Amino acid sequence: MKKILIAALFTCALVSATFADTLSDFNDSIDTFLGEINTALPDSAVIGGTWSDAYIGQLIGVPPHFGVGVAAGVTRFPTQGLIDAMDAVDVDLPVDTLVLPNFAIEGRVGGFILPFDAGIRFGMMPSTNLGGFDIGYLHYGVDARYAVIKGGLVLPKVSVGVGYYHTSGSITMPLEATALLGTLAAYAPGDTYDLDLNFATDVVEAKAQVSKSFVIVTPYAGVGVSMANSTASYDLGGLMDDSRSETVYGARAFGGLSLNLLLLKIDATGSYNFLSGNWGANVGTRIQL
């Protein structure tokens, strides 16, 4: 009888230790993932809003210079921390990489007196299932650019500018992780809980851009440096939660090409952040005078 009791106590201790290790591994890995979100999110915020012309001209003129259009961008979310967290609880992710979309309506107007232009963009997506995840977001931003060189027959257009961008949203996935949740008193066996990831970033970016039009095409390139305040958090069915905030710095190069068909312009832009190692891509179409 004593041997049975000792064996039972040893088994309980072993199970408790296993649950504790699982909980610790999950917490460490999910915290790493929250940091990855904070680092990558500013790249999603700044990928849009780049128009091929480094400077579009004056609003007061003949014709007046302004434009409006739509754009769609994507940036990659590193997921190693999330993969490790799911491995800790024996759950397979439906995808290896998370790609965050960014759809927006954009507008830009030329300045007056001084050679500058200003842009605005806004986009949102209600929670939508993409690759096994429910993803939703809100995005908006404003920027202004000053023309250092207005450009002409020979010279390119060169501008410097500053912008503010905000992106927030959520990623939700169902999680069946008895190995983890079984340690929690509120856990009901057989129930499925949602892992809710919430994120937000506010970014200020200074950038310089050069462009040169050749009849129907306009190549362009630029660099930008940014500072962002990012916050990411998770909630697991009301049973577990945590958050992480940090200041993130970025240094990126971007460039692309636009096809100019009378008043219609079609842009394609690529971007790479040297500090985060993250990439982004954006395509847009607009009517521009």
Structure in words:
With 289 residues, the chain is of the alpha+beta class. The chain has a single domain (2-288), classed as Porin (Beta Barrel). It is built from three helices and ten strands. It has helices spanning 2-46, 80-88, 178-181, and strands at 66-77, 98-110, 116-130, 133-149, 157-175, 193-211, 217-236, 240-261, 264-273, 279-288. Strands 1-2-3-4-5-6-7-8-9-10 form a ten-stranded antiparallel beta barrel. Strand 6 and strand 7 (217-236) form a beta hairpin. Mean pLDDT is 83; it is low at 1-19.
* CATH level 1 name: Mainly Beta
CATH topology: Porin
Number of helices: 3
> How many DSSP-defined strands?
10
Indicate the proportion of strand residues. Answer: over 45%
Order of helices and strands: HEHEEEEHEEEEE
The CATH architecture is Beta Barrel
Total domains, how many?
A: 1
Strand order of the largest sheet: 1-2-3-4-5-6-7-8-9-10
- The oligomerization state is single chain
Radius of gyration based on Cα positions: 24 Å
- Most strands sheet: 10 strands, antiparallel, barrel
Structural class: alpha+beta
- Gross morphology is elongated
pLDDT < 50 runs, ≥5 residues: 1-19
Give the N-to-C terminal Cα separation. Answer: 90 Å
Mean pLDDT across all amino acids: 83
How much helix is in the residues? 10-25%
